Amino acid sequence: MKLHILKFFLLLPLVCSCGSRTSTVESVEVDTIPEPQPLSATPLLSASDITYDIVVHDTVTSGQLSSLRDLYKEAPGWLTFRGGPLRDADFGGRVKGTPSRIVKRWMFETENDQRPTKMGTWGGGTGWTSQPLYIEWPDSTAQRFAQQRGGLLDSLPRQEIMVASLCSKVYFIDFNTGKASRTPLDTHNPVKGTMSLDPQLNGNLYVGQAVPRDVAIGRLAYNLFSHKETMFHNRDSHSWVNWQGNDSSPLVVGGFLFFPSENGTIYKYYIDEDSLRLHTSLRWKTARGGAAGMENSLCVYHNYGFIGNNHGDIMCFELNTMKPIWHYDNHDDIDGTIVCEVEDSIPYLYCGCEVDQQGNKGIAHFVKLNGLTGERVWDNETPCSKLNIGSKHFDGGFYGTPLLGKGNCLELIFDNVCQRENSKVAEFTAFSKKTGEVVYRVPLKSWAWSSPVAFYNENDELFVFTGDTAGNAYLIEGKTGKVLFTEHMVSNFESSPVVVGNEFVVGSRGQEIYKFAVE
Length: 519
Prior knowledge:
Blueprint: E1 7-11, E2 15-17, E3 20-22, E4 25-29, E5 50-56, E6 77-78, E7 102-109, E8 133-136, H1 139-148, E9 159-164, E10 169-174, E11 185-186, E12 196-197, E13 204-208, E14 219-223, E15 228-233, E16 251-253, E17 256-260, E18 265-272, E19 275-286, E20 290-291, E21 299-301, E22 304-308, E23 313-318, E24 324-329, E25 339-343, E26 346-352, E27 354-355, E28 361-370, E29 376-385, E30 387-389, E31 392-394, E32 396-397, E33 403-404, E34 412-418, E35 426-432, E36 438-443, E37 453-456, E38 462-467, E39 472-477, E40 483-488, E41 498-500, E42 503-507, E43 512-518
Antiparallel strand pairs: 1-4, 2-3, 5-19, 6-8, 7-43, 8-9, 9-10, 10-11, 12-13, 13-14, 14-15, 16-17, 17-18, 18-19, 19-20, 21-22, 22-23, 23-24, 25-26, 26-28, 27-32, 28-29, 30-31, 33-34, 34-35, 35-36, 37-38, 38-39, 39-40, 41-42, 42-43
């Protein structure tokens, strides 16, 4: 199918109030959206810091992207981690007035898998870096599901949640009722990360396995129309890191799927309808730290991809050639995903690191970079420490992905900072986008890995939901940091929410997936 004749679908803003919601889905022609222009493929001086190996596995198919359009912006839902290539979590959450509470709409239970692995038992529910996907199926796709069934238990819900669990299953849930909509898919290994649904609505669902249980772990593709596995790409004997986990949420750009792995390799797959072919592999490292895994998700602007690794390296590479463009050293383990925001036609990147390799104490660096050059705009340095509990330790610094402020908080960016100095908890923190200075901090009751999400009212005032690992929920006024609501609601908010109107769906480390409403 050629992209220039495809029709995609645009999910318009959802108008909501106190538990009710309405939405409109309309089709738009791709040709009405201007084609982004490619950026320079010439490496900058800092790229010489990177040692890399590019292997082209498919020498017949061109590696040139067919388009630079953001297909996720045109899709009817939220089909990858934090919504799209910029990873900016622009979910369009809406509330009326000043919200004062969070209420539970439904709870869905996963299986509880107690089979042992070399890394313990994983149970059920969801963990870090998971986020549910949300889709509003258009008429044409719904008709195809009606014919092919796709594991459906009954009729296709027009609003569907998809989420992968630590119990190794992929679950499908009716967004409105909280009931199972399809039979689960069995991946055979725990999944920690966020899946991706192909925005071309070809039925492809992309899943990365995290921890081996009975079989080797790898990267999978399923076709939802047949409800069957169509690809399993497992151990890469040529990888530079001997750990094959996959916590990253893959991304579709220009006819290719980009999938970073914890084995130190970025995989580029050619999408041929409902099948995938490995096209190119990029292995990379720096002299400072050697090869390292990637647990965060790829951020993309035009033909530039931005990724961080477990040694603190940030790399920009060109998506057509897969060659590095620039490198920035952000000092320590990067697990939160890089976020991009365009200001005056320049893509600026925000990224935080942990206190991991520095020892029990160190500096968590939160930086703003020029995405075209890798030049630093500012660096906020926060002293943080590890938290040691028994035989386990929990790193300080940034685990969650930053939240860009908009509306009346356009000048702010937010994130949870774990164990600042000698603290045993996290602080929800507002930073100035211009200077990186801390505007305010809100102490939480436990450490926090979940990524915060935003809701806006009719006056464009921003309100934030965030959760901590003890299961406490917080509703915070974005401009002031005033806590409007806090309550213990689940066993553990470790994974991140997806927002639809005034509601959000999020998993817990117990066996539960929840839908909540902000009222």
